[in-house]
Every structure is written in C-alpha cells, then in structure tokens.
Amino acid sequence: MSPLLQYDGAPHGEAPLGLLLAAQVERAPDATALTFPDETVTRKELERRTNMRARQLIRAGLKPNGIVMIALPNCREFYEVTIATWKAGGTPLHISAKLKPREYDELFSLAQPQLVVDAKSPLLISPDDFDGSPVDATPAKHWKISTSGGSTGRPKLIVDARPALWSAEKEAVRRKPDAVIINPGPLYHSAPFAIMHTALLEGCHVIEMGRFDAERYLALSAQHSATWAYLVPTMMQRIAKLPREIIDRNDLSSVETVLHMAAVCPPHVKRFWIDWLGPDRIWEVYGGTERIGATTIGGSEWLEHPGSVGKARAGIEARILNEAGDEVPRGAIGEMFFKREGGASSTFSYVGADVRQRGDWASFGDMGWMDEDGYLYIADRRTDMIVSGGVNIYPAEIEAQIDALPGVVSSVVVGAPHTDLGEVPCAVVHRTDDANDINERVLIESISNKLAAVKLPKHVIFVSETIRSDAGKIRRMEWREWARKKLEGAET
Description:
Blueprint: H1 17-27, E1 32-36, E2 39-42, H2 43-60, E3 67-71, H3 76-87, E4 91-94, H4 101-111, E5 115-118, E6 145-148, E7 156-160, E8 180-183, H5 190-201, E9 205-208, H6 214-223, E10 228-231, H7 233-240, H8 244-249, E11 257-260, H9 267-277, E12 282-286, E13 295-298, H10 299-304, E14 311-312, E15 316-321, E16 334-340, E17 348-351, E18 356-358, E19 361-370, E20 376-381, E21 386-388, E22 391-393, H11 395-403, E23 408-418, E24 422-431, H12 440-447, E25 459-463, H13 476-486
Parallel strand pairs: 1-9, 3-4, 3-5, 8-9, 8-10, 10-11, 11-12, 24-25
Antiparallel strand pairs: 1-2, 6-7, 7-17, 12-13, 13-14, 15-16, 16-19, 18-19, 19-20, 21-22, 23-24
C-alpha cells in the first residue's frame, strides 16, 4: 500500500494533493469515485483522465503556481480540471459559470489567471491524446482560491495560504475514508468545492446531483446508502417542509453524520433534524473561507445551548468586541473576533479587499454574543444590521420566524428608508404557488407574538422567484436595492 495512506485509507503527513488519487487507486482501482445522472467514474479512470488533463494544461501554458480559472457547472470536467490543476502544480480558482460579464471581468482582472476553463474553452476537449501516466510536479503554494462578493457587493479573491498538500486541517468533521456523499451544492462555492474534492482524494464516493432538489436529495441518499452529508440550512429547511410521507419513504439510517454550515440555522429546523435522525448525528460548523476562526457543536450540546454555534475549536480564541475594540460582557452583542496562532495572515490573504482586524484578532464581520459557558451565538452580519430609531435590528432573527411559516420557501429582510426612524424592516418573501392566502396582514399577525413590534416588517413584498442561491446564500445588497425601488413613493 502507498506510504501516503494509513491502513484505513486515510492520508497522513503532508502528501501532495496530486498524488492522493493514485494512492486510492492502489487500494481499490475499480471502486466508484464519482457518480453522475448519466455515468459513473472509477478511481482508476479518474486518475488516468486527470493525469491526461494535467499534461493538457501544461501544454496550454500552465506554469508552476499558475492560476486556472474554472467557470463550469457541476460536471465531471469540473472535478477533472481541478485535480489536474493540482497534479500540474497550479492553483484552481473556482467561480460561477453564471456570472455577468462585469462580474467575470472584475474577477479576471484581480486573478490574472494563466488559463480559463469555461463552456467555450478548447481545454474541455477530451484529453485522450495525452499520456495518462502520473505527472511529476511540485505542489503549488496555494491549494485554492475562492471568490466572494461579501457585504460590499464588490468581488474579491480569498487566497488560501495552505499549499496543495493534504493535511489534517482538510479533514471534514467525522468524515471517514470511503464515505458515500451526495453533493447538493454548487462547486463554485467554497464549502462544496473543498469538501467534495478532498473527499474524493480520501477515497470517498461522491454522487453529483447537479442542482439541489429536496425530494431528489432524499431519494439519492436512500438509493446510495449515503453515510455522510453536507447541507446548508436552506436545504435542511426545504427537506423539513416536504410532506411527511416523502420523508418517511426514504431510509436515511445509513447516514452517520449531517454537517451543516454557511448560514444561521433556524432553531425549528435544527430541532426537526435532531428529532428525525437523533442529536448525535447532527453537527454544525461556523467559520468562513478565510479560516480565521471556527466553532463546532454537536446536536446533544446544542440541546443544552439552543441556538449556539458552539465553542471555538482547539487552537483558536474567540472574543466579542464593541466598536471601540473593548471586550463586552457575557450576553451582550458585539462583533465576533477570533485569534489563532500565526494570526489571520497565516490562513489567507485577500485580493481586492482588506481584513477586518484589531491587532492579532480578526473578524468575518458577524455580530453575536457569548454565554457564561463560552458558547457563541450569531446575531447577524454587521453590515446587514438595520438601525431603526436607534434600535439595532438583526434581519436573521426576523427571517427565521418568517421562514418557519407554512407556505414560505424563504425570505430576506432588508432596511427600507423611513423619514422618521431612518430605516424599517422590509421583508421579501418567496411563497409556494399554493400559498396565496398568505398576505401581508396574515404574515405579520402570524409572527407578531414572537417578535417585538419594532422588529415586525413594515413592508412585505411577495415574489415567485428563488431568493437564496443554491449554496444557501443571499445577495442581500441586491435585494435591498430591488426592494427600495419597489417601495419608491410608498408611505414612510
């Protein structure tokens, strides 16, 4: 067996990412690596094709540490090009294939990639003319570059400081080698990209569903006896709102761990999953692509500290600071800052943005508080906060109550201008086609006993389109501008 693997198939040490697939082939060459709706790919075949693509990239001009911008939908080629980039000594930059020309141009200008692989690229042509034997290349200085519009609406690059080597930090919570995983998320997003690609290199079987659909996700999980799941709260909520007969029809007893992240999980959704699968199988991670800090919490802990995202992980400190940079008392809301050995610069760098930093402490920009036991709770993003008549209002709290209503798919709450109060909450609500009985009055009455009057939306706009992306994210700035245009001339 390859020295890159332990007896159970897990990588160890600092093995080059480009070599791990070959080591998995040694273990079980004909094991399935990837499954798509219309094809399956074995480890042996994936290793051969990624070696060929690596040579294809080098022939096209990729130099050591060069950037390959990948703008593809979830597909076999996406996985092949990413792994081939590591094999060739390059760094993959994964972006959405649906970007507008302006967004694409801004990212291209920031990244200055050596190669671009998109739907029109000649590099998508089958690499069958190239040698499929292993490629000897030095691992790149950076294993990936991700993108974010963040709260500013301006695109930026998040360059991971880690080299293209496997390390314990790339392990996902409770994921075992040879796990079976359904990928529900877009690979242009940081978490699905990192999770699915490292899972493949650890010998896991990844089933690619392309675009998330709640009922289909359950069916695939049951069909393939999935053992480990990555989801975001929006997906969890859509599954929870399925008819009970659909949920009961699909056996998820094989799933050992459900890991969720990327957004605040409404308590009613979390309780549903804990009641359904049991607390020991539900795990949450709070963090960010920048890796300046992270917390973890299991379902049993969460029941003792409902609403918490957990404690800071080993080697990381957490504090809640006010605008002056002073630590606030336990239970008081402030901005969440983290400190880890080596500082923020040891984990990432921005291109096109500045780090929110106070000395050795850095922040994702989220507001929250800490209880007496050191557990953290998220209030909202600092830039999403609505200030109404001097009162701080956190949209996530209102969205959680609206999203819990029958007939609501999802919502986004933004600040609408008000002549007296400055801003008031405005809710944009995506309801199901058969939920026309949910009007503004009914919605506000339904949540009025759960929120203070100042937090109740003063405007409600219903839409029939999706509010959150496939990754569960909201482009809040765009929705705010859209809502404000809709409300022009409305009484304030």
